[in-house]
Each structure stands twice: as structure tokens, then as C-alpha cells.
């Protein structure tokens, strides 16, 4: 018995155990306190709503996933390009960084009405909002990774005859990869936030729109079902980015706790 217990991989099981424990505690609190579904629905009630409204949840979930991934992909490409540019030149860094900080400080929900004026209600504002909110972490992490090379290392390479391009391609960029792939985990979760923000303001489909409609109809279990859908999509996307990070930059981590 002791041997069997010792063979259990508790690290791999802990996310499932903690999640199950959370829902069991949630169910117990609702039953003990007698909370009505329009205040806090029990997990079993949420599951029932997911089964009942599964076609709508599936359709809107795919829409949100599409807008999120489209905005995230644009943020990765644009953020990587701008991050390399900012990290390449100190002049560009000094000129653009304050502008990026100022733009990132603007609440993205305030930008959505402008996007509606430009592109109308639909998918495009959600994609652009997902792009805007996930763009900054990629740029900052790439630029930070490029700036972490020690000046002594750069001086030695220059003394050996290496050009700035050689140093960038063979030393600086490889060393910045952990920062870049690490930023993907942050950016993908923020992309979901951007999509849902736009869908609650300027969309006729998506999980955010579905939750807003359910709220107006006092279908609180469906609202929580939408939250669960977003959580599942976010966890899967984050896990995928963590897997990519581990595959591409496993050499930079000393243990399995790095991710």
C-alpha cells in the first residue's frame, strides 16, 4: 500500500485534485447556505445549463477562440518585430518606449467604441482589441531579453571581430528566446480578456455577447457556464504556450518548476 501511494505523481494530480476540491466546496456552500441560482448557481446547475445550451456555447466559444487566436497571432508577429527593433537601437528604444507605455496605460475598453466607428460591430473590433491588449507584453519581454546581454560579452565579441549583426543573431536573440516564449503565456491570457471585452460591447456573437444576453434574461447559470468556457479555453491555451516554451527553451530552465 505504501509503495503504491509513493508511486503516485502528486504533482501531476494536484491540479485535478484542487479543481475537484474547489467545485465540491462550492457545491457544499451553495447547499448549506441555500443560495438561489440567480445569486450563485451550484456547479451541478452550471453543468446542467452547459448541457441545455451546448449548441450556443459551442458556437460562441469557437467564435471567441477564433478572435483571440487571430489577435494573439498578430500580437506575436508585431510584438516580435517591434521588440527586435527596440532592442536593436537605443535611440529607437528611448523614442518609442514612452509612447508604448502611454498607449498601454489607456484602458482598452475605451478604445472599443472607436473601433466600432471605424470597423462596425462584429469580429474585427474583437480581434483588434485582443491584439492591442496582448501586444505590449511581447514587445517588453523581447526588448528586455535583448538588453540582458552583458556588456563584457559584447565587448569581447567585438574584439574578436564580430559585427553587430553577428552578435544579434548568434548570441543576443538566442538568449532572448526564454523571454519571448515566456511572454506568450501572458499574452494569450490577455488576448482572451481583450476578445471578451470587445464582445460585451461591440459584437453579435462570442462568449462575451452570450453572457451579456444571458445576464439581461436573468439566466445566471448560463453566465457562469460562459465563464467556465472561457476558463477552459484559457487553461488549454496557456498549457499549449507552456509546452511550446518548454520545447523551445528547455535548456534555459534548471527544473520543472520554471514554468
Rg over C-alpha atoms, rounded to the nearest angstrom: 23 Å
pLDDT averaged over residues = 82
* Residue share in β-strands: under 5%
**How many DSSP helices?**
11
CATH topological fold name: MetI-like fold
CATH class: Mainly Alpha
Low-confidence stretches: none
Structural class: mainly alpha
List the helices and strands and how they pair.
Layout: H1 2-6, H2 10-33, H3 43-52, H4 54-88, H5 90-104, H6 112-119, H7 123-146, H8 151-159, H9 164-202, H10 207-216, H11 220-249
Short recap of the structure:
It is globular and about 75 Å long. It has helices spanning 2-6, 10-33, 43-52, 54-88, 90-104, 112-119, 123-146, 151-159, 164-202, 207-216, 220-249.
Provide a descriptive summary of the structure in words.
The chain is mainly α and 259 residues long. It has a single domain (43-250), classed as MetI-like (MetI-like fold). 81% of the residues lie in helices and 0% in strands. It has 11 helices and no strands. It has helices spanning 2-6, 10-33, 43-52, 54-88, 90-104, 112-119, 123-146, 151-159, 164-202, 207-216, 220-249. Helix 3 packs across helix 11 (220-249) and helix 9 (164-202) packs antiparallel against helix 11. The longest helix is centred in the C-terminal third of the chain and has 39 residues, at 164-202. The chain starts with a helix and ends in a 10-residue tail after the last helix.
Amino acid at each position: 500500500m505504501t509503495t503504491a501511494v509513493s508511486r503516485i505523481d502528486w504533482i501531476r494530480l494536484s491540479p485535478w485534485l484542487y479543481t475537484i476540491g474547489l467545485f465540491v466546496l462550492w457545491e457544499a456552500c451553495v447547499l448549506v447556505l441555500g443560495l438561489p441560482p440567480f445569486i450563485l448557481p451550484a456547479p451541478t446547475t452550471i453543468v446542467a445549463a452547459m448541457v441545455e445550451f451546448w449548441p450556443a456555447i459551442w458556437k460562441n466559444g469557437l467564435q471567441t477562440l477564433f478572435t483571440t487566436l487571430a489577435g494573439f497571432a498578430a500580437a506575436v508577429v508585431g510584438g516580435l518585430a517591434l521588440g527586435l527593433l527596440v532592442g536593436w537601437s537605443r535611440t529607437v528604444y528611448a523614442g518609442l518606449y514612452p509612447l508604448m507605455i502611454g498607449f498601454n496605460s489607456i484602458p482598452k475598453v475605451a478604445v472599443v467604441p472607436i473601433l466600432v466607428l471605424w470597423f462596425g460591430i462584429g469580429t474585427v473590433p474583437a480581434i483588434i482589441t485582443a491584439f492591442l491588449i496582448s501586444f505590449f507584453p511581447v514587445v517588453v519581454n523581447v526588448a528586455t531579453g535583448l538588453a540582458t546581454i552583458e556588456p563584457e560579452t559584447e565587448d569581447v565579441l567585438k574584439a574578436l571581430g564580430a559585427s553587430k549583426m553577428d552578435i544579434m543573431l548568434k548570441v543576443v536573440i538566442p538568449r532572448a528566446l526564454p523571454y519571448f516564449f515566456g511572454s506568450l503565456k501572458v499574452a494569450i491570457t490577455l488576448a482572451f480578456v481583450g476578445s471578451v471585452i470587445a464582445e460585451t460591447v461591440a459584437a453579435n456573437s462570442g462568449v462575451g455577447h452570450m453572457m451579456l444576453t444571458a445576464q439581461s434574461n436573468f439566466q445566471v447559470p448560463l453566465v457562469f457556464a460562459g465563464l467556465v468556457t472561457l476558463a477552459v479555453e484559457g487553461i488549454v491555451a496557456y498549457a499549449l504556450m507552456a509546452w511550446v516554451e518548454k520545447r523551445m527553451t528547455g535548456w534555459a530552465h534548471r527544473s520543472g518548476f520554471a514554468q
